[in-house]
Amino acid sequence: MLEMKVPSPGESITEVEIARWLVKTGDYVTKDQAIAEVDSDKATLELPAEAAGIITLQAEEGEAVKVGQVVCLIDTNAQAPATAPAVKQEETKQEAPTTKVETTKVEAPVVQAPTVQTPSPAARKILAEREIPTSAVNGTGKAGRITKNDALTASKPSMGTPVGSVRREVRTKMSMLRRKVAERLVSAKNETAMLTTFNEVDMTAIFQLRAQYKDAFKERHNVGLGFMSFFTLAVVRALKLFPDVNSMIDGQDKVTYDFCDISIAVSGPKGLMVPVIRNAENLSFRGVEAEVKRLATRARDGQITVDEMTGGTFTITNGGVFGSMLSTPIINPPQSGILGMHNIVDRAIVRDGQIVIAPVMYVALSYDHRIIDGRESVGFLVAVKEALENPVELLMNGNPAQALEL
User: Which of these is catalytic: 215, 258, 301, 373?
Assistant: First the structure.
């Protein structure tokens, strides 16, 4: 009998939660077959069977189990169930007995009076004019029918009074990942001196570049030319100009990084996940787009690993995909800054002394004021704005085709 224990999903993780069993006691499982989904405080992972055999579950769904704890037993001596042979049709075919069917008289069922009160035409009109639901009126007519007098004497329910509907509540336990996210967000609000600064970005230049090159980019690299590559490379440039934004507090020390590991917030089936683009300063437009696509797909499919979620020196979150116009994103601790992207809307702006219509995005930088001063935070966001409004010169070295590897 093999005892299956919870493996360590990553450093510093001591406990996981059985999110869902994919098999049941008595099932025959094969080696490496996924038998359960487990939640850690960072990601949802699949638990593969270590051997083939008959399984016996030892933990319940929703139960918190320690790393190294036995969660199931596998009888490795059990034989795989044989497929039942098909039964020949001739053996199962039986002739129908020739029995004489006697006809009997069936009496018609007694029709019960309707339980739903039906208003008369006059009553229906009065109730409609007074906006009174029929369920709020007691009918005094035959079989509970609502009469004209019933409608005239009925009173309209007071505001907020539930009428004619079932009021229910559903209580479900939050996953370990969701609980951990909640704890981290509250911690960030309570333990950092968080402040947010805003700016707006004229997206015209990026729109023109995407319109000109996106088809060729897609055909050449098999990945779309989205906004995330422009924003990621603009952030990398700004982090080099203002390294305090790429720093963290560790006790009484300030830790500053010479690399840019950019976390990207992704909405997954289990909640918010933040996979990391490693060494974004070394990536091209193609490299960023390919990595964003890979990480987002793995997060949404529940395949993201703890290593892919660990670390990060700065975060980018895009509420614009859900229609957000403006927000104050919460810092992803222990990081000191997070950039919020929002939806792009045609707005009237002044350009060269003229009022023109342009696609504009509001951007927000939330930062930890304990380590980042106003000059650095505002300067960082202005640097992001400058790069996005002049990407050919500041992000592409004056040669878009070469930068996009076309």
Answer: 373
Both structure tokens of 392: 């050919």
pLDDT for res 187: 81
Count Cβ atoms below 10 Å from residue 245 Cβ, excluding itself: 27
What's the token pair of residue 355? 């009022």
Cis peptide before 391 (omega within 30 of 0): no
Query: How buried is 116 (Cβ within 10 angstroms: 0-12 exposed, 13-18 middle, 19+ buried)?
Result: exposed
Distance between alpha carbon 216 and the CA centroid of its chain, in Å? 31
Comparing 264 with 164, the larger pLDDT belongs to 264
- Give burial (CB, 10 Å; 0-12/13-18/19+) of 84: exposed
Element (H, E) at 91: helix 89-92
Distance CA 246, CA 336 (A): 7
Q: What percent of the chain has pLDDT over 70?
A: 86
**Contact between residue 276 and residue 263 where contact means Cβ atoms under 8 Å apart:** yes
363, containing H or E segment: strand 354-368
Dump strand ranges (E) for 33-151: 34-39, 44-48, 53-57, 64-66, 70-75
| Highest averaged pLDDT of the listed ranges 15-19, 43-47, 255-259 | 255-259
Rounding to the nearest 10 degrees, give the CA dihedral for residues 225, 227, 232, 233. Answer: 60
What tokens appear for 185 in the block? 């967000």
Catalytic residue list contains 373? yes
Q: Which of 211, 215, 210 is nearest to 226 (CA)?
A: 210
What the block records as the tokens of 147 is 């009469």
Whose CA is closest to 133, among 142, 144, 124? 124
Over residues 202-253, the pLDDT tens digits come to 999 999 999 999 999 999 999 999 999 999 999 999 999 999 999 999 988 9
Question: Structural domains in the chain?
Answer: 2-75 (2.40.50.100), 121-153 (4.10.320.10), 176-403 (3.30.559.10)
Q: Which amino acid is at 15?
A: E
User: Within a 10 A sphere around the Cβ of 317, how many other Cβ atoms?
Assistant: 25
Catalytic option among 32, 258, 301, 369? 369
Pairing of strands 271-273, 344-351: unpaired
